[in-house]
Design a protein that fits this description.
Strand content: 25-35%
Bound molecules: adenosine-5'-diphosphate, magnesium ion
Number of helices: 6
Structural class: alpha/beta
Largest sheet: 6 strands, mixed
Oligomer: single chain
Distance between the termini: 38 Å
Shape: globular
CATH architecture: 3-Layer(aba) Sandwich
Length: 234
């Protein structure tokens, strides 16, 4: 391997997802070819309906493509049986969503611990790790609270801690600032950029906003489900 050669962590070939609705078909994404090296910070842009969420759902193993090839961190997600996909979702990728997706009846600390408990970890080991993450994210004094008692920015930082609890190599964030004011949006992007820079994760952020542009090492623009070379206009 040449010294300059970077390790590819995500590879897609002709990746296509078509949604069938009764008799009609809707293109989610179409013929996407991608190679993303480890430790990139990718900003995924495109108008609403351009296919960003569809692509992230496929990369995270939440959804399966209609056709094409898809390899993520050495896993062939086309061939993977369901139980391998479940493990992959828990251990290889961490997801952050626009609406946080926290469980309302659990405390902040319990929300963060949950994916590690589901993965079969020991509570005595998981809890100190969750506390460390929450302290790093400035939530040390909110751990016993329930999500409804937090601000949007605090909820999203809780979701980031939850995404990190199983040490995923890849963080996928779908419009993570979509429900935040600009100050909190900026903070969340800075945290994701810090994860990329100091914790050496591959980070992909789908976003309308230009808050992440300054940190991007790669930009992907989608239009009507396809990658476009023209400048992103969103
Ligand atoms: N579950 C679904 N069923 C049918 N069509 C869908 C579904 N999810 C997304 N689509 C369609 O796929 C296209 C891409 O959507 P999406 O990936 O959500 O775009 P974005 O995240 O960029 O807004 C849109 O035309 C959307 O209506
Ligand atoms: Mg979307």
């Amino acid at each position: 391997m040449r010294v300059s050669e970077k390790k590819t962590v995500i590879e897609t070939k002709a990746l296509t997802r078509i949604y069938s609705l009764g008799d009609s078909e809707v293109i989610g994404i179409s013929s996407i070819n991608l190679e993303i090296a480890a430790r990139e910070l990718v900003v995924l842009k495109g108008n609403s309906g351009s296919g960003k969420s569809t692509l992230l759902s496929l990369l995270s193993g939440l959804d399966r493509p209609t056709s094409g090839e898809l390899k993520v961190a050495g896993h062939d997600l086309i061939k993977a049986p369901e139980e391998q996909l479940t493990r992959f979702r828990r251990e290889v990728v961490g997801m952050v969503f626009q609406n946080f997706n926290l469980l309302p009846t659990l405390s902040v600390l319990e929300n963060v611990c949950l994916p590690a408990l589901l993965a079969g970890g020991w509570p005595e080991k998981i809890e100190p790790k969750a506390i460390d993450l929450l302290q790093w994210l400035g939530l040390g004094d909110r751990m016993a609270h329930q999500p409804a008692q937090l601000s949007g920015g605090e909820m999203q930082r809780t979701a980031i801690a939850r995404a990190l609890i199983n040490d995923p190599a890849i963080i996928l964030a779908d419009e993570p600032t979509g429900n935040l004011d600009s100050r909190n949006g900026q903070l969340v992007i800075q945290l994701l950029a810090e994860l990329h820079r100091t914790r050496e994760r591959t980070v992909i952020i789908a976003t309308h906003s230009n808050l992440a542009d300054a940190f991007a090492t790669m930009e992907i623009c989608l239009k009507d489900g396809m990658i476009t070379d023209t400048t992103c206009e969103v």
